[in-house]
Amino acid sequence: MGIEKDINQYHFTSEGQKAIINLIYTSNWISEHIKEILDEHDITPQQFNILRILRGSDPQPLSTLTIRERMLDKMSDTSRIVDRLVIKGLAVKKVCSTDKRLVDVNITKEGKRILEVLDKKQPEMSSITNNLTDAELKQLNSLLDNLRSRL
User: Fold this and answer.
1) DSSP per residue over 7-39, as a string?
2) Is 46 exposed, middle or buried, given 0-12, 13-18 or 19+ CB atoms closer than 10 A?
3) Does residue 105 sit in the same domain as residue 89?
4) Using CA atoms, how far apart are residues 81 and 31, in angstroms rounded to an integer?
5) Quick one: which of 47, 58, 81, 87 has the fewest CB in 10 Å?
6) Phi, psi torsion values for 25, nearest 5 degrees
């Protein structure tokens, strides 16, 4: 099985074009796998990302600006996602005491509990790489880092 069969396209203008299409297709494939697991807990991938960022800084609050800088998906509407986490009781926000223009966000106990449950699903989330060896994963990580460093 290869990208050609997966998308029923057998001609590419270059190996570069094929690689880009393959990366986009694979990224979406991985996202769908993770989304299925997160859906069981009524959490979006972006909400999961923010909760993990908040847990990493706990007990220190983070501004929505700092959260956005650390997010995997830079195009996300961080404020809207944080508001949804607040509604779900997974995060709290308050006006920053040192800069009234900023909003500080913290994870709640319920947010930590959800992450603890999802931590137990990490092997399932990581299972998509089971058909690669550690050496292949290191090589893949190196190639992806190298790809991003050229821009």
Assistant:
1) HT----S-HHHHHHHHHHHHHHHHHHHHHHHHH
2) buried
3) yes
4) 18
5) 87
6) -60, -45
Reported as a single tens digit per residue, the pLDDT across 8-38 is 888 899 999 999 999 999 999 999 999 999 9
Total tally of structural domains belonging to the chain: 2
DSSP letter at 74? T
The verdict on residue 11 lying in a domain is yes
Sheet holding 91-95, edge to edge: 62-63, 103-107, 91-95
H-only helix segments in 71-128: 78-87, 109-119, 122-126
Of the candidates 85, 103, 102, which has an alpha carbon nearest to the alpha carbon of residue 94? 103
AA identity, residue 58: D
pTM for this entry: 0.86
Place of tokens 């990490």: 122
pLDDT per residue as tens digits for the range 105-144:
999 999 999 999 999 999 999 899 999 999 999 999 999 9
* Cα separation of the two ends of the chain: 30
| CA 91 remoteness from chain centre | 17
